[in-house]
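Follow-up to my earlier ticket, as requested here are the two runs.
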Amino acid sequence: MTPQRLSISEAPIRVMVVETHQLILWALTKLINSHRPGMEVVAVAGTQCDALFQLPTAAPDLVLMKYELAVTAHQAGLPEALTCGRHTLLFAQELETDTLASTLRCGAHGLLSRRSSADEIVKAIEKTHQGELWFGREATCLALNALRGGEPARPHPHHDGLDALTPRERRVLQTVVANKVRTNRDLAKILFISESTLRNHLSSIYQKLGVSNRLDLYVYAQSHLALTF
């Protein structure tokens, strides 16, 4: 029997992820591939040159790219295929008024921050692929404040959540982030606690930090742990 082929509307969104930090690259890849068959990562790259080299064979529908790399590529006059000509979604460390302007100048179709939740990242990929511009609530508030001539409203950096962690929870958090590919059983052995106790600690950490799973935690940690621990 000949297998049925997906229609264009049912075909997965082919995503290339371009990010210099291996932890974030891994987390984004895991997140996107967890939403198969709706979307999948067809290529990953750590530099503009690597991305350009893979572009013809990977043939992505959408490029999810670190903001700084996209802006550098645009300023250097690299081929527009990297940031234009296909749906492009940028991923920035911090959102500033200049960040929004630069995103539009380099031809990107959307902008996310490192504080974006897993659900928001997935939704942004879907909407951007459909041809919509995506700037999310945080970026929209920033733009509106700039138009009004007011000070940008900066999102809370979640330090209150980190401050609320107990010493034991901080130890668990550091261990989880440092051993991102380990199972709960492995992590429990490293911490000399039971899996049940580990799950209880993780549940409390998720609630205090406003994340929902380990993947969200890895992305969150990249933006905040270096400033706190």
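Run two:
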Amino acid sequence: MKLRSRHRPTAPEGKVIRLELFETIRLWHGQGMATREIARRLGICPKTVRRHLDKIDRGAKAPQRATPPSKLDPFLDRITELTAVGRTAWSIYEELRTDLAFTGCYDTVKRAVRRLRHHEPKVYERLEHLPGAEAQVDFTELARVDHQGRRVRTWCFQMIWPHSRWRYLEVVLDQTGPTFLGCIQRALQASGAIPQRLVPDNLTSAVLRRQMGLRPYQRDFAAFCAHYGVAPAPARVRTPTDKASVERGNGTLKKHLRGRTFATLADLQAAVTGHQRSVNARPHSQTGKVPNDLLALERRGQLPEPYPLALWSEHRVRSDCHVQVLRNFYSVPYRLAGKKVVVRVDDDRIVVFDDFVEIARHPRCSGRGETDLSPGK
């Protein structure tokens, strides 16, 4: 009967054991563990353990895995030259493939170019805002909620005074002109502070399409700013650092609402209002001061009379005796079918005029594609 050894046969002399096995042998031997105990725990022959302990005593380092040669090795000098002059990874790959018979893939070249490029870190200068000098506004999308029997999208309007970090928050259902101006007006009334400069995003409720580098403003937005004596200064396109305070505020709000669900619009507004009161009443992380205490420094004078919020536009009455305003439909008298009428969009209602005579008045619909069939009077 042939007996089997309880140990595995000794590994060939030229075979390299795994790196983690080599490190384990060195660690346990340094802790005073016997050679046979190390072999028993690792399931290898004691001779293998002794051989590697002899190598360790002679100052041998951990075994290194042999790296196979790369297809890029013959072309590294050329890739370095082309990367230094600003060539893209794809153009370098095309040249290697067509002129130098490179047989590798594009991803290999792209990884090599990425390692060679030196990216300078972006450096920003921290701006210190004077009291009352600026206010930043922005919208950020929140969760969908139930409103009037429908599942609707919601946004949060946020206006921040950067010096005091005082903010005003309001949940809205759209970003149209009357809604946008109404939010700003309520923020000014809540704070009592009129900034010298107003920094919104490039939303269509404030800024028209760029023309020859200029940014013409919507008529109602320009009139609103003139009424309050505020200079509009929209942020540059894709440059969130122009309104960093409100962008940071959007992130703080979303972090506060993360993981929470809201059944109705009122529940969401209550949560947002609670967040506003909390951040305005506690010391700010950068200034160390309470925004409510610094708000008085933002006030420059008395607020003027409220601006009459309205959006005027001209529409043609459809053949079904409805006029389409902001993607919703409102009924008008049948005699006006095919005629042009003037519509005034207020914050909460729609008013239709024919030859300066009011002919219909409807509550403003909050969604899209809704139809108001009421007589409108």
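The only thing I checked on run two: The longest helix spans residues 265-281. Let me know what else you need.
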